Amino acid sequence: MGRTDRACRVIAAPPATVYGALLDRESLEAWLPPDGMRGRIERWDPRPGGGFRLVLTYLDHTDSPGKTSDATDVVDVEFAALVPPERVVQRVVFEADDPAYSGTMTMTWHLAATGAGTEVTVTATDVPPGIDQAVHEVGIASSLANLASYIEAAH
Questions:
Q1: CB of 64 within 8 A of CB of 36?
Q2: Please, which residues have CB within 8 angstroms of residue 103's CB and are 6 or more apart in sequence?
């Protein structure tokens, strides 16, 4: 059994709005890359069994060499389950030569209505051992902060 990493944040919007941002290509490109990265989606098929290919580029890769190349992380993401507006389950595979990044990581985005909006909990299971847990959890929290800013600015 692999490692589990987790982060959570309340976003001031209803679950349906948050769910929509999880399944919109332009939205994902805007908010998903953590601080210090930018993202580009190369393939997009938002349905169960579909997915996307995401190229994340480090703005400064000096201290953070990428998994795919010195400056990039490339991931293939499959939508394993889509349950509107409650849950998105993704199977994530990194494109990397280093076996420390091999395997399939599952990312579950769980949305729960609260009085303040939507509590979004991201749980990553079977995280490849090459990914530092503290760095990964900071990255997930950064993506959640970006998601909150993106959604809350629009509403």
A1: yes
A2: 2, 93, 126, 128
